[in-house]
Amino acid sequence: RTTEMVLPIQEGDERILLVDDVKTLLNVETEILERLGYEVTATTSPIEALNIFREQPDRFDLVYTDMTMPRMTGLTLTKKLKEIRPNLPVILYTGLGNLLDADEIRESGVSAFLKKPVLLEDLASTIREVLENEK
Length: 135
Hints:
This protein is an alpha/beta fold. Helices cover 41% and strands 18% of the residues. It has helices spanning 23-35, 46-55, 74-84, 102-108, 120-134; strands at 15-19, 39-43, 62-66, 90-94, 112-115. The chain is globular and about 45 Å long.
């Protein structure tokens, strides 16, 4: 019988801008991030996310965005946000793993990339990793 070490789920208190065009997913993701201790500003619109960010670019410690959204992809949103604040940490997630160009993702400045379904432990540790690397 093996005894696995179970690490506690990593929490934080930073401010996250969350973008997902599917309202039900947005609500679940907001709840998860808030349970982890983060302060979340959530929107279903990448256009609105960009406007919120433009108004207060230093308000957020991290952006967590879906890749596939109408009117603007998560990758395009990332590029536009990074034009405003180049060192902004961004985590991009998608259910369409093979349709993405790894070079394009790297060039966009995405800090980390997650595939749906995103496990709580993976999300929690990825957020901490990205935020620690940016300090």
